[in-house]
Every structure is written in structure tokens, then in C-alpha cells.
Design goal:
Arc Repressor Mutant, subunit A, mainly alpha, single chain, 6 helices, 151 residues
């Protein structure tokens, strides 16, 4: 239900949140290797997250990406991440392609989609990086977010 870009963005920010105590920057190519994702694609999808102020980037020898100053894993929801990649306002568009689909001018799927999309958006808004990190701590065998073992 989310794009590959959003999936990778969530995994990357989960990784950065787990590393936050080290207070260092991580190169996109190093994260990509650890996360098992294409490096050029990861570098591209991190940029909207920088623009939104969720992460900070720094060029140069000790550069890379990290959570933005003052941002904690509890501050960043999946909605924040996915919206940066996909502009979630588009989810409200009619499933059947009607130019106007509202309670007054509903398509056959309007009520179902309205309820489903509301639940989906609420789930994204109520789930934080901290919760994903907690899952990783409780279930390290899951391999999330890094399918590649740390050497």
C-alpha cells in the first residue's frame, strides 16, 4: 500500500533512529549496503526527508545523514515519512477516477474508501519510529530494518 520509496525511507529512518545515540552521520551508500537497497535510489529518497526537516544532511568528509537536531524517534511518525515521499493528500482521490467524489457525489466505493483511507492514515499517524525500534529490540531475528547482518 506504500511505495518502494516510502518503504526504504521508513527503513532508513528506523536505522538512523537506532544509531541516534552515536550522534554521527551515515553515508547513504553505507546505509544502502546495510539496508540492502540501491544506493542511488536511497540518496534520492532521503532528500525530501531533509527538506521536511526530519533528517539532516551534511556534505564533506564526516558528512552523511542523521535525524535532524532535536528530533527523537518518538517525534517522527510514519505519516511524516510517507507524506514526504507520496504526498498523502492524493490518497483521497476517487478510486474509480471521478473528478468529484464526495459524500454528496459519491462513487460506488466512496464510503468504503473513505473509511479505509481514514484508518490507514490514522495508523501511519499513530506509529512512530520509536515503536519500530522497539519492535526491532524485541524481535532481532526479524532482521528489520537491516536484512544484512552487521559485521
Amino acid at each position: 500500500m506504500i511505495s518502494r520509496a516510502s518503504e526504504y525511507a521508513i527503513r532508513a529512518l528506523t536505522f538512523l533512529a537506532q544509531q541516534q545515540s552515536e550522534d554521527g552521520f551515515y553515508l547513504a551508500r553505507d546505509m544502502a549496503e546495510r539496508l540492502g537497497v540501491p544506493a542511488p535510489f536511497l540518496a534520492k529518497i532521503l532528500q525530501p526527508l531533509v527538506t521536511r526537516g526530519l533528517i539532516k544532511s551534511q556534505r564533506g568528509r564526516s558528512g552523511g545523514f542523521k535525524l535532524a537536531d532535536g528530533k527523537l524517534a518518538t517525534d517522527i511518525s510514519l505519516y511524516d515519512i510517507v507524506d514526504a515521499e507520496e504526498h498523502l493528500g492524493k490518497i483521497r482521490k476517487c478510486l474509480l477516477g471521478q473528478s468529484e467524489c464526495s459524500d454528496d457525489r459519491a462513487c460506488p466505493l466512496h464510503q468504503y474508501w473513505k473509511r479505509t483511507s481514514d484508518e490507514y492514515l490514522a495508523l501511519l499517524a499513530s506509529t512512530t519510529l520509536r515503536e519500530l525500534g522497539h519492535f526491532c529490540e524485541q524481535k532481532p531475528q526479524s532482521g528489520y530494518p537491516c536484512p544484512t547482518p552487521i559485521a
